[in-house]
Each structure stands twice: as C-alpha cells, then as structure tokens.
C-alpha cells in the first residue's frame, strides 16, 4: 500500500515541515478545513491552557492557527539513494541508454493525475517514474531554487 505523506514549506519561518514530524512531536499538524471546502493546511499550536469541566476533571485545551504554507505530497517514489521524492523537489533523471548518457533536471509537479519532472526553461517534461531511469533528488524549489 502506498504511503500518503505530506510536507509543507512554512513561508514565515522558511522551514520545511514533514507530516511524520508533526503533533504531538511538534507544535505543527496537518488538518482538513471542514469549513473551507476541505482545504488541506498546516496548523501551528499557538496556545495551550488548562480547563476544568463541570465535574471538576482537569484537562487542557489547545489552540491552533493556520500557517501560510505550501503543501506538497509524497509521490510514493524514492530516488537511487532512498530519499523520498515530494512535489517541489528538484530531480535529476539519468536516462539509461546503451547508446548515450543523457540527463534531465526539473521540478516535480502533479499534473493530470501524474507526477512529472518539469523543466520550464526547456519547455519539456518527463514522467517521474520509468523503470530504466535513475532518479536523484538534488534540492527543492524553496531551499535551492537556483538548481531548478
């Protein structure tokens, strides 16, 4: 079964947040906004306080606020070194051919039901996964935009 995972680029803190590193391990969590067309967003805990119910039992209440963030999904594919590939990653594809060695660098995007590696400068795109290709994550559009 394919793992459904996400990461988010926190625009304010300029930090990548991964879904396997969120609440309760950190102050962040991913959540569907049921009041806003079920948009998926990153939330940050901004307050936590104790409350007492009518029977005298103490518990705590946590307050979360939405974070200005770009959400990216895990493709379900790992590169040659075992690194997970997400939308927004900059990937180098080495085409395996007995006639020549060629490579292609682009940004992983989701388009029409498929993950593609898109190079806007060349106006070309390739499917992210073909069995004969070797993939290498070399950065992402947030932390290393110059590579894309």
Can you describe this structure?
This protein is mainly beta. Helix content is 0%, strand content 57%. The chain is built from no helices and twelve strands. The chain has strands at 6-10, 15-18, 28-33, 39-52, 58-66, 69-78, 84-86, 89-95, 102-111, 114-119, 124-127, 134-140. It has a five-stranded antiparallel beta sheet, with no helix packed on it. Strands 2-1-6-7 form a four-stranded antiparallel beta sheet, with no helix packed on it. The protein has a three-stranded antiparallel beta sheet with strand order 3-4-5, with no helix packed on it. It is elongated. The mean pLDDT is 90.
Proportion of residues in β-strands: over 45%
Distance between the termini: 31 Å
Number of strands: 12
Largest sheet: 5 strands, antiparallel
- In helices, the fraction of residues equals under 10%
Order of helices and strands: EEEEEEEEEEEE
Which geometry do the CA atoms define? Answer: elongated
Global mean pLDDT: 90
Rg calc: 20 Å
Strands in their spatial order, largest beta sheet: 11-10-9-8-12
Number of helices: 0
Structural class based on helices, strands and sheet pairing: mainly beta
């Amino acid at each position: 079964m394919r793992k459904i995972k996400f990461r988010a680029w926190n625009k304010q803190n300029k930090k990548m947040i991964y879904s396997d590193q969120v609440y309760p391990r950190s102050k962040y969590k991913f959540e569907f906004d049921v009041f806003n067309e079920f948009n998926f967003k990153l939330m940050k805990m901004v307050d936590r306080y104790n409350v007492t119910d009518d029977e005298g039992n103490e518990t705590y209440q946590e307050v979360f606020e939405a974070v200005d963030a770009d959400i990216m999904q895990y493709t379900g594919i790992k590169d040659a070194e075992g690194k997970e590939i997400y939308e927004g990653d900059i990937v180098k594809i080495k085409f395996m051919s007995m006639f020549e060695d060629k490579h292609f660098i682009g940004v992983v995007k989701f388009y029409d039901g498929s993950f593609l590696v898109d190079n806007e400068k060349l106006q070309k795109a390739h499917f992210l996964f073909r069995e004969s290709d070797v993939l290498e994550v070399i950065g992402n559009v947030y932390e290393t935009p110059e590579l894309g």
